[in-house]
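Module 6 notes. Inverse folding takes a fixed backbone as the condition and produces residue identities as the prediction. Think of it as a translation problem where the source language is geometry and the target language is the twenty amino acids. Below is one complete input and output pair. Work through it position by position during the lab.
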């Protein structure tokens, strides 16, 4: 028997609302809203406000700051999937004349380009985009502060360049590429470049007194791809579902999964964080969260997805500082995951068409030297290799058209696993990136590099 729970249990809903209420009170935010997605559907929304009877709903716009970067990254990945660019292409190939064209598109996506974190003064988030109308105004006289490709260094100008790249390759403004490439296919009708009512106002709350002041909402101009967008809990929950599963109308599942792979080591002092291709990565409460945080004067925002749990959470607030949406969104995921853990799919045997006797003959124990491993056959002719005792290098593999398999994760990601046969067609051993796996540990006559001692196994 299977069960499906669309809405959280009442006790879970109470815990979620309590977390939102505490965030609004302790964060001293005019309003705080949150939503939860489970298995691709929005199943909960909560809202708290300092104005009685006027709490925002899931269609109220807030500014989402750097969550905008995820949208820009998706547009760039679409260009790659269409064969219009390569991630390892230098920027100069498609956007000449910037002065930093030696950096690659992948380095810009993963913030390893070495570019400065911010534009030259004045502070770009509180000044109109007309202040810096050209890329040269965004980059300044010293655009790079680190060698390209060496380390993670977050760069807002880097995503401005990516937005200009989209415009150059598509031949349309970034806003139009965004609308036709992402917003319309996914039905994100309340995600816009400029606010469309109902929209929350942005506020600065005094750090030492319960008073507040309105923040300006500037049009960021050429910097828009780094942080311009306004959106809602409803739209961002739908976008979170896309980031979990992909959507062939926008970006395939495989490409979305590629965005979630760490592109560079985490920044020094941040062992639990990382960055993929446009997505932040976070280890929290024993699970991996992917998504992005965002802030602009008057607003803070976070979107986190736990792919393994089938959950996502979005939190938005209209205060410059105080609320901690990153922490709260992670807590919303944790609350649901712990209170209502995901039900595993029922076990089912492989479809008859996928049963291959030659492949089944490879299943079972193999030995790398004296280390015992098990080869398990999965769906779609995929296999997994895992240690049978203690810690070791486990990996999933998918089949290659030319034969063999390629590693999908861990130490063996990208490495090729192949079957080596004897002249008579029988299996000699498995080769995994030159590592030899045999059916017995150091059996006489096996193809073990360096040979096997002629005396064989012996006692003391």
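Target side of the pair, the amino acids:
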């Amino acid at each position: 028997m299977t069960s499906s729970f669309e809405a959280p249990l009442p006790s879970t809903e109470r815990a979620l609302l309590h977390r939102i209420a505490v965030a609004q009170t302790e964060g001293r935010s005019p309003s705080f809203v949150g939503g939860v997605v489970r298995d691709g559907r929005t199943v909960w929304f909560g809202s708290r406000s300092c104005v009685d009877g006027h709490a925002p709903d899931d269609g109220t716009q807030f500014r989402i700051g750097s969550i905008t970067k995820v949208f820009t990254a998706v547009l760039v990945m679409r260009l790659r999937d269409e064969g219009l660019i390569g991630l390892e292409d230098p920027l100069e190939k498609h956007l000449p004349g910037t002065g930093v064209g030696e950096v690659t598109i992948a380095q810009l996506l993963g913030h390893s380009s070495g570019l400065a974190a911010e534009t030259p003064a004045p502070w770009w988030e509180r000044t109109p985009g007309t202040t810096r109308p050209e890329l040269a105004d965004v980059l300044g006289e010293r655009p790079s502060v680190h060698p390209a490709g060496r380390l993670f260094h977050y760069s807002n100008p880097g995503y401005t360049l990516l937005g200009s790249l989209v415009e150059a390759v598509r031949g349309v403004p970034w806003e139009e590429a965004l609308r036709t490439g992402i917003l319309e296919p996914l039905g994100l009708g309340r995600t816009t470049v400029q606010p469309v009512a109902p929209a929350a106002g942005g506020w600065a709350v005094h750090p030492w007194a319960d008073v507040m002041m309105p923040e300006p909402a500037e049009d960021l101009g050429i910097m828009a791809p780094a942080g311009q967008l306004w959106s809602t809990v409803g739209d961002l929950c739908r976008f979170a579902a896309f980031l979990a599963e992909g959507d062939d109308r926008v970006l395939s599942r495989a490409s979305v999964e590629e965005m979630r792979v760490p592109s560079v080591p985490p920044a020094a002092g941040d062992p639990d964080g990382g960055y993929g291709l446009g997505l932040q990565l976070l280890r929290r409460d024993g699970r991996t969260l992917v998504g992005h945080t965002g802030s602009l004067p008057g607003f803070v925002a976070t979107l986190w997805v736990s792919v393994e749990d089938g959950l996502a959470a979005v939190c938005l607030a209209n205060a410059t500082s105080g609320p901690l949406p990153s922490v709260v969104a992670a807590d919303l995921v944790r609350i649901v995951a712990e209170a209502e853990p995901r039900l595993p799919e029922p076990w089912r045997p492989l479809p008859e068409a996928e049963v291959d006797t030659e492949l089944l003959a490879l299943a079972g124990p193999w030995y790398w030297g004296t280390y015992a491993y098990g080869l398990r056959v999965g769906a779609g002719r995929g296999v997994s290799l895992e240690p049978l005792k203690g810690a070791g290098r486990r990996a999933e593999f998918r089949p290659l058209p030319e034969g063999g398999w390629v590693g999908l994760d861990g130490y063996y990601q990208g490495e090729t696993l192949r079957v080596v046969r004897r002249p008579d067609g029988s299996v000699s051993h498995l080769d995994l990136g030159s590592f030899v796996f045999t059916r017995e540990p150091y059996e006489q006559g096996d193809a073990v590099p360096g040979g096997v001692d002629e005396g064989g196994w012996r006692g003391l």
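Reference fact for the lab report: The mean pLDDT is 94.
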